[in-house]
Amino acid sequence: MLEHLEEYIIPETVAEAVRLLRRRPVGSAVAITGDIDHHWWRLQRARRIVDTSRLGLDQIKTAQGGLRLGAATLLEDIVQSKPCQRFAGGLLVAGARGLASPLKRHSTSLASMIINAVPTVDITAALLLLDACVKVQGQRRRTVAMDDLFVGKGRTALDRELLLEVALPKPPPRFGTALERHALTPSDTPMLTVIAGLALTRGRIADVRLAVGGGVKVPLRLPAVERNLVGKAPSAPMFAEAAAALAKAIKPISDSRASVDHRRAVAEPLARRALARALESIR
Amino acid sequence: MKTPPRITLDVTLNGAPRTVEAGINETLFDLLRRIGHVGVKNGCLTGDCGACAIELNGRPILSCCILAAHAQGSEIVTPEGLGRPDALDPLQEAFLDTGAVQCGYCTPGMLIAARHLLRTTPDPSDAEIRDALAGNLCRCTGYVKPVEAVRLAAKRQRRRGKRK
How far apart (Å, rounded) are the C-alpha atoms in residues B26 and B4? Predict the structure, then answer.
């Protein structure tokens, strides 16, 4: 197991961690926060593991109505955090609980979910919906929108950069959210997850967001479906139409949990329910 | 093919300082079992069953999902460290008294998970107990007696005014 590994280093500073990540040959170093199971395929040819668990990147801070989550924050700490419980109707907590085992949540960091573009734990789709961005440090420090981060199955736009934190802007006023997941049991990996976020102004949709996770290659937003809803008065037929458009727009995968057809078939009722519950939560 | 190098780890294991050698590619699970802590069980090695649960720096974690090197300088508690045969942990007592052990394979992991629950939630509801044990797969008990055991241990702990 991991026969190519030559070094396991626990750096004490971000600068040291970044130097180690950028050391040649390119791609020989993998940054982890401790847990290895989501990094498994990246670790197979790694020569160097850079353990970033002791860099102090596990803080949860509020910031002008928004949130800043250190990259090394464990999912269980998100579940237990009062600021996270209050944020956006508890969506982050619902997303973190997508990993149903508390043991697993105590062992798994936000970074592991993000840098492996994991669609099967709902928190990545939740972060997308909430317009999160990530702060990373490579040759320079930069900010990348979550929307631009996931470039393919298990791949991100990061280039030997260290994930420092996830920043979430303050949600719109009276922003309702709802997460609907379809899984064999409540603790199973979802076959599909649809998340909706909604804000109204004078009875009309001012802000609407739809994110899909679970049985897709990468978590995604549906901007075209969202645009069609803005400015309209919410109604069941309108939500049904949006849900049908969402089901048509996604490209689900086929695996041992469900087929493409099954996932497409459940996408529509999940989206309808998510929109309806998001609306209900603000009324 | 080269064998990955080995490192020396200084940890506190069940309350006692310990220095051990480990391969840098060795999981904490493999290391602990190799040095005799066989209460850490192999149920899946993918982090899904909870049988390998231990406490690392006060947190219940899955030892199969962590490389041993990550534990450098850490405090580790294995199921063996929960009590002694002549002085059982309240949870161990309760699991015995309620008959919550059938094949026993999931039990050590359940004890670790439940211990953390009772530390953070001294008077848990049944729903909270079930939630805490959600990461411990059990094919034998249907969770009926384990939930009863945790409830009983919580009651006894509260009565004794003990906090572990």
Answer: 9
Subunit contact B67:A103, Cβ cutoff 8 A = no
Which chain A residue has the Cα nearest residue B115? A103
Exposure string (b/e) for A45-63, b if CB count within 10 Å is 16 or more?
ebbbbbbbbbbebbebeee
* Interchain proximity A101–B135, CB inside 8 Å: yes
Q: Which residues, other chains included, contact A126 with Cβ-Cβ below 8 Å and sequence gap of 6+?
A: A91, A92, A94, A95, A179, A195, A211
Residue A8 Cα distances to A19, A50, A58, A115, A136, angstroms: 14, 6, 20, 19, 22
Contact between A135 and A145 under an 8 Å Cβ cutoff? The reply is: no
Q: Tokens at residue A143, please?
A: 């900010």
What does the alpha-carbon distance between residue A261 and residue A282 come to, in Å, rounded to a whole number? 33
pTM (two decimals): 0.95
pLDDT, one tens digit per residue, over B43-92 is 999 999 999 999 999 999 999 999 999 999 999 999 999 999 899 999 99
Q: For the segment A164-201, what is each residue's pLDDT rounded down to a tens digit?
A: 999 999 999 999 999 999 999 888 899 999 999 999 99
Here the ipTM equals 0.93
* Spatial distance between the Cα atoms of B156 and B18, rounded to a whole number of angstroms: 33
Q: Give Cβ neighbours of residue B22 (< 8 Å, ≥ 6 apart).
A: B6, B7, B9, B31, B68, B69
| Strands of B16-23's sheet in order across | B16-23, B6-13, B75-77, B53-56, B59-62
A204 DSSP β-pair partners? A201
**A10 interaction partners in chain B (CB closer than 8 Å):** 69-70, 72
The tokens for A7 are 């070094």
* Range B96-99, long-range pairs (CB < 8 A, 24+ positions): B97/B149, B97/B152, B98/B145, B98/B148, B98/B149, B98/B152, B99/B145
* pLDDT tens profile A24-82: 888 889 999 999 988 888 888 899 999 999 999 999 999 999 999 999 999 999 999 99
Percent of chain A at pLDDT exceeding 70: 100
